[in-house]
Amino acid sequence: MTIVVAIDGPAAAGKGTLARRVAKDLNLAYLDTGLLYRATGFAVIQAGGDLDDANDALKAAQNLTPTDLENEKLRHDEAAQAASKVAVVQPVRDELLEFQRRFASQPPAGKAGAVLDGRDIGTVVCPDAPVKLFVTASCEVRAQRRLKELQDRGLEAIYAQVLQDMKDRDARDSQRAAAPLKAADDAVILDTSDLGIEEVIEQAKSIISEKA
Ligand code: C5P
After folding, report:
1. Which pLDDT belongs to residue 77?
2. pLDDT tens column, 145-192
3. Which residue's alpha carbon is nearest to atom 14 within ligand 1?
4. Is the CB of 38 under 6 A from ligand 1?
5. What is the C-alpha to C-alpha distance for residues 14 and 35, in angstroms, rounded to an integer?
6. Which residue in 55, 59, 161, 201 has a CA-CA distance of 20 to 30 Å to 48?
7. In degrees, to the nearest 5, what angle opens at C-alpha 68 toward C-alphas 121 and 101?
């Protein structure tokens, strides 16, 4: 019997850092599902396609290979914005669903289970996950975190632009018809606005040990 931890929430709320640490400390396999959408959006750009064209997006999702997920450029904001455009297309989501579900139900040998982070893990990908966390923080706090992350990577960025991009992406993710960003009814909400990462990790681990 393996355990599945579903972590959802908006951009830069701290999901990735939390998911990575929980995976390491509890010996779970980790899947960053945002990478699948980023790689799909990036492939559309690379092919000279149209990000608002559902067929271009679907073709890119169908042709994804594991090496497409290793591109450093997927961490740039251009890929994030592209991801949130292709992510509104239901057939793209359907195409990526089976891989995510298989990862959750059949983690690699030696792992005690899997942790997946994204926008719809607790609601659509793994609705039966025993542990669901919804990690959030105010838009301003998340924009500050993203700004620092970009600057730490040596990329130029200004707060006002990062904040606007964040708001645009939040709106697209939560207002779309296909698997919109929202907390599952049985998710525990973790607001990280005023918490340090170690506190968030401790809270998450205690919730997991209660529920798993
Ligand atoms: O998590 P990350 O910021 O890398 O995700 C990039 C974009 O991919 C999100 O803004 C969202 O539009 C999309 N996404 C999604 N469902 C997921 C993960 C990501 O729609 N499970």
Report:
1. 86
2. 999 999 998 989 999 999 999 999 999 999 999 999 999 999 999 999
3. 34
4. yes
5. 15
6. 161
7. 25
Helix (H, G, I), strand (E, B) or coil at 13: coil
Instruction: Please say whether the structural domain 1-14+115-212 has been given the CATH code 2.40.50.1070.
Output: no
DSSP string, 88-118: T-HHHHHHHHHHHHHHHHSPPTT-SEEEEEE
Cβ 19 under 6 angstroms from ligand 1: no
d(Cα 151, Cα 92) in Å, to the nearest integer?
32
- Tens-of-pLDDT digits for all 212 residues of the chain? 789 999 999 999 999 999 999 999 999 999 999 999 999 999 999 999 999 999 999 999 999 999 999 999 999 889 999 999 999 999 999 999 999 999 999 998 999 999 999 999 999 999 999 999 999 999 999 999 999 999 998 989 999 999 999 999 999 999 999 999 999 999 999 999 999 889 999 999 999 999 87
Q: What percent of the chain has pLDDT over 70?
A: 100
Domain residue ranges of the chain, discontinuous segments joined by + = 1-14+115-212, 29-110
pTM: 0.95
Distance of CA 9 from the midpoint of ligand 1 (Å) = 9
Residue nearest to atom 4 of ligand 1 (CA): 34
